[in-house]
Amino acid sequence: MAHIDYYFATLSPYCYLAGDRLEAVAAKHGASITYKPFDIIAAFGRTGGTSPKDRHISRIEHRAQELVRQAKKLGMPFNLKPAHWPTNGAPSAYAFIAAQSAGGGDLGKLAQVITRNVWVDDKDIAENDVIRACLTEAGFDPDLADSGLLEGAETYARNLEQAVEVGVFGAPFYVFGDQRFWGQDRIEDLDLHLAGKL
Question: Fewer Cβ atoms within 10 Å of its own Cβ: the N or the C terminal residue of the chain?
Answer without folding.
Answer: N
